[in-house]
Structures are given as C-alpha cells and as structure tokens.
Amino acid sequence: YFEMCDRIILVSGTLKIDPTYEPLMKKIREKYARESISLTDPHDNPFHEDLSDLGSIMDGMVKRTKEAEHLGSRYSPLTCVYIDDLMVGSGASAGYRYNTCVDNLFTTSRHSGGVIILLQQAFKGLSRTARLQLAHLALFPVLSDEWERIIASLAGRNGISKETLEQAYRIAPSKQCGFLWLDLTAAPQDVFW
C-alpha cells in the first residue's frame, strides 16, 4: 500500500520523541528522494507535529489531483494522511473534535485522492461530521463506557443492528488479530472482518 500512494503524510505530536516513527519516516524520506519530491515544499512536506498544516496538506492533494486531470489521468494521485496523538490542542492546532480542518479533511479528501488514517483512544473525540464519513473502522478492546458510545453511534448505520455489533465485538478481539474491522460501506452481511 505504501508504494501505491503518491504522498505519505504523518501528523503527530510525538513524531520527534517516539522512536517507533523513525523507520517509517526513513522510508518516506527514501521514497521522496527516489521520486524527486521536495521535503520542504509546504504542499509536499510529509512531517507535521500538529493539525495547523491540514489546509496546506489539502491544498497539495487538490493541486496534484488537478494536475493529474490536466494530464488526462482517470485517477487521483493517492495521499495517505496518518494522524496520531493529537486528540487535544488549542488554536490552529486544536484537537480532532471541534476542528473544522479535520472535518474538511474527512468530508472532502476522498475527492482528491485522500486516504485518511486517524488513531485515537476516544471514538467521540472525533466530531460527528467526521465519524459519519468513516468508511472503515478498526476497533480494539475498549472500556465499557467507550464501547457504549461506539454502539450508540454505529447501531443502525448501513443496516448494522446493535445486537450484531455486540456479537461481533465479543468474538473478534478474542481471536488472534485482537480487533474488529468494520467496512462501513459494505452490504450488511459483509461489514465485519
């Protein structure tokens, strides 16, 4: 999947302090060097420590999509935006919940080749607008009160009953994979993986 994407963007408040990011950052630097992509261009910069650059990230996605259309391509170049460790914040780098840039990213990026991966521990930490745009969801074991919020938000969506969600969630985390994968765009019988 990594090679399918034209750009890979990491947005995390812990990019510089979490050593687990370094191998991925190295791969991104190598990819950008191989493809002659500037690490300093505001539209292409792959590393961001807060959400204040989401507008520029979106502008880059739109620019690449328009360029591809102009060249006659039938496909938008894919941009994978990976957001982690930013549930709270203030000002331009505000957290996920009431951040219009995050909402815009979720509601419009699919029209310009956006693949958004957002990690968080609190499902309701993401605005309702953004949650309604989710195409896929990986659920790991969560506290019971958080599970109740998730059930309340997902039950009824795409024909998924509360009972079916409960049953799938009881089974999936106990299997080797340790999480429940939901394809929220699939037919009801194909939602769970």
Task: Summarize the structure in words.
It is a single chain. The chain has 193 residues and is of the alpha/beta class. It has six helices and six strands; from the N terminus they run E-H-E-H-E-H-E-H-E-H-H-E. The strands form two sheets. The chain has a four-stranded parallel β-sheet, with helices on both faces. Strands 5-6 form a two-stranded antiparallel ribbon. Strand 1, helix 1 (22-34) and strand 2 form a beta-alpha-beta unit. It is globular and about 50 Å long. The relative contact order is 0.11. The mean pLDDT is 86.
Helix/strand layout:
Layout (H helix, E strand, L loop, with lengths): L6 E6 L9 H13 L12 E2 L5 H17 L8 E6 L15 H9 L5 E5 L9 H5 L3 E4 L4 H11 L7 H10 L8 E4 L10
Number of helices: 6
**Mean pLDDT over the full residue set:** 86
Low-confidence stretches: none
Number of strands: 6
N-to-C order of helices and strands:
EHEHEHEHEHHE
Which structural class matches the secondary elements?
A: alpha/beta
Overall radius of gyration: 18 Å
Strand proportion, as a percent range, falls in 5-15%
Oligomeric state of shown chains: single chain
Fraction of residues in helices? 25-40%
State the end-to-end distance: 19 Å
Largest sheet: 4 strands, parallel
Strand order of the largest sheet: 2-1-3-4
Please state the overall shape, judged from the principal axes of the Cα atoms.
Answer: globular
